[in-house]
Amino acid sequence: MADESYLCIGPDVKLGRDVKLSKFINLYGCEIGDESKIGAFVEVQKNATIGKRCKISSHSFVCEGVTIEDNVFIGHGVTFINDTYPRSTSLEGKLQTEVDWKVERTVVRKGASIGSGATVLSEVTIGENAIVGAGSVVTRDVPKNAIVAGSPAKILRYLAEEEPEELMSSSATRDDG
Ligand SMILES: CC(C)(COP(=O)(O)OP(=O)(O)OC[C@H]1O[C@@H](n2cnc3c(N)ncnc32)[C@H](O)[C@@H]1OP(=O)(O)O)[C@@H](O)C(=O)NCCC(=O)NCCS
Fold first, then answer.
1. What digits encode the pLDDT tens for the residues 17-64?
2. Which residue minimizes the CA distance to atom 47 of ligand 1?
3. Given 21, 38, 59, 118, which residue is catalytic?
4. Which residues does a 6 A CB cutoff place in the pocket of ligand 1?
5. What distance in Å separates the CA atoms of residue 146 and residue 127, rounded to the nearest whole number?
6. How do residues 109-164 score in pLDDT, each as one tens digit?
7. Is 76 a residue of the active site?
8. Beta bridge partners of 138
9. Domains plus CATH for the chain?
10. Closest Cα partner for 140 from 128, 156, 155?
């Protein structure tokens, strides 16, 4: 682990086994799974969950309401959103507190990757093994195995799913015959 004088980790953070933390990170009320790696200047807010073997690159912001499953890659400077219509003050003109707004959720499914500088709006699910291009703005759900890019992010193509083993051996038999 990095020199603890550069780390800001709340007592309520649940860190898994062998989590690697860089300097200047800010974690509070969140959960990070085994063997995940968190880069410098990353903030993970309360009620955010990061799975096992994830890589969260430097300068990314994982806000409350975000669930990141296992084996996910988050590039540099990725921003998540949890409030679609944000306001600084309540109707009474006072600074807003937690009672004045409802957290909107986002899920990043297992094995997905999000490119550097992407912004992920709330209430979306990024499907298993999907890839989000650098600098994209994700406004809708991303299907499993899709590559999306742009603002708003559109599907470029799908990654081929790995063939199950029994199909591979039967096609090998066909080739032999
Ligand atoms: C999206 C990405 C995965 C490439 O996917 P791909 O299916 O191989 O796409 P291609 O390179 O064949 O490009 C297809 C089209 O999408 C465009 N495109 C590619 N990446 C793009 C991006 N990030 N944003 C907008 N458009 C993009 C290309 O210009 C091309 O457009 P054209 O058909 O008009 O010429 C890749 O460009 C990318 O952004 N990867 C993320 C890298 C990253 O952030 N890594 C972080 C750690 S360093």
1. 999 999 999 999 999 999 999 999 999 999 999 999 999 999 999 999
2. 75
3. 59
4. 75, 115-116, 131, 133-136, 147, 149-150, 156-157
5. 8
6. 999 999 999 999 999 999 999 999 999 999 999 999 999 999 999 999 999 875 45
7. no
8. 120
9. 4-84+101-172 (2.160.10.10)
10. 155
